[in-house]
Design brief:
alpha+beta
């Protein structure tokens, strides 16, 4: 009888431990985009639109004082390749929390 109870107890523990094992998190792939000041003025509409952002190889921002919109990190699932160039999907929500026009 003790063997049966200990066997059932061991089975319950094994099921319990496997049920509460934390799932393995997959690393998400993100891309960095920088605002394209050569083609777009930094208006609120341009900053919040996906067309004015170009893929960046750096994660840091330039030091130019007039470049208010700098870099954003975008989940790879919200990007696509267009003619071999990584772009932000149209309709991706980009919110400008502060807007200061260039002087």
């Amino acid at each position: 009888m003790k063997k049966i109870i200990s066997g059932v107890f061991a089975a319950v523990l094994a099921i319990g431990f496997s049920a509460f094992t934390a799932p393995v998190k997959k690393a998400t792939l993100n891309y960095y985009f920088e605002f394209d000041y050569t083609a777009y003025s930094p208006t609120k509409a341009n900053v919040e639109g996906s067309a004015a952002w170009k893929i960046s190889t750096s994660t840091s921002c330039p030091n130019a004082a007039d470049e208010k919109a700098c870099k954003i990190e975008v989940d790879a699932a919200k990007t696509h390749l267009e003619s071999g160039v990584r772009k932000i999907n149209p309709g991706t929500n980009i919110v400008a929390t502060e807007f200061l026009p260039n002087n």
